[in-house]
Amino acid sequence: MMNTFFKGLKVIEIAGVLAGPSVGLFFAELGADVIKVENLRTNGDLTRHWKQENEDPSSSSSAYFACVNWNKKHIFLDLREEEDKLKLISMIEDADVLISNFKSNSAIKLGLDYKTLSKINTKLIYGQILGFPNEENRPAFDVVLQAETGFLSMSGTKNGELTKMPVALIDLMTAHQLKEAILIALLQRVKTKKGAYVSASLYESALASLANQASNYLNNNNIAKPLGTEHPNIAPYGEMLKTLDDKALLLAIGTELQFVKLCNTLELNELLVDEKYSSNTARIANRKSLISILETKISEQKLTYWKEIFNEVGIPFGQVKNMEEVLENKYVQEKMILSNTNDKGKTMKRLKSISFKIE
Asked: How many whole angstroms separate alpha carbon 347 and alpha carbon 61?
């Protein structure tokens, strides 16, 4: 049922890289007819050429490209050529949704802006990905936004080494924002029978996702600094502790009851009456000594021991896993991985972009 939810919906995608194509993928996974228009002059979407060392250099696609371009019809056009532009416009005439990351000036010059296209198709929902809404011509790649919106300044280790997020999460967060806008516009169209222009910018989507870190500054003037995996408001939360078999175990103690359970389980009940650890605020102030005590205890047993006992009593924890450990999991293999073939007949795998369920 769910993978045919948007059957009959026609989506034109003239966006490249990750954010826009992620929106197109959402509709493709739910059964829409998604037509991806790629630039003939550049041999298609830029990510077709973003290959790692062990990928086939002669293939017209890459693993990166495969992650967001499943179940789409691909058409290569040169929109500077009048004939190709007219082909695109003819497809837009009966389309439901258009996804674009063209700059406004470029869209107007090509005659592919909303004002022009809404005269051709009054029911068209035009979804626009923007970079910096107040700096139209500024290139906006994910890591640039991580730098400009504070994510980079607080991601890293305590010794001051900064690290970017290894997934382009700002692109993906922007895609989610635009999806929501398009869905609202589709609901509105049911009532009004009219299309709409909706947009989401990488800059504003990143700002909207700062959540508690922004609130910590706005209300307390606290500027977030790199803490590694630690949480600025909770302890112990995010600390990675090594087990006897040298596995990394991460704790996420979010409530006082959970801290009590942790101390009981580790036979460290003396911490509960020690004023240095008897409240969350005190534990934050004395984090270093607390973690030293916990590290000593966790190192006495193997990971399997702690996993069993923590699960039994309900202590939040996580095993720090690499990609192989994550993706070779039986549940992930059965429920989350899809495959298709590329232009050379090679099977390409990717994770589903949709994890919610409607029953």
From this structure: 12
Distance of CA 123 to the CA centre of its chain: 30
Is residue 1's pLDDT more than 70? no
Q: How far apart are CA 6 and CA 3, in angstroms?
A: 8
Distance, CA of 212 to CA of 191 (rounded, Å): 37
Domains defined along the chain, listed by start: 2-208 (3.40.50.10540), 237-320 (3.30.1540.10)
What is the chain's Cα-based Rg?
25
Catalytic positions, please?
Answer: 171
Instruction: For residue range 291-311, list pLDDT tens digits in order.
Output: 999 999 999 999 999 999 999
Helix (H), strand (E) at residue 99: strand 97-100
Residue 88 to residue 98: CA distance in whole angstroms: 11
Looking at residue 134, its amino acid is N
The model's pLDDT over 15-64, given as tens digits with 9 standing for 90+, comes to 999 999 999 999 999 999 999 999 999 989 999 999 998 988 888 888 89
pTM: 0.86
Counted residue by residue, the chain has a size of 359
Contacts of 151-157 with CB under 8 Å at 24 or more apart are: 151/206, 151/210, 153/224, 153/225, 153/226, 154/213, 154/224, 154/225, 154/226, 154/227, 155/226, 156/226, 156/228, 157/226, 157/228
- Distance (Å, whole) CA 314 – CA 260: 11
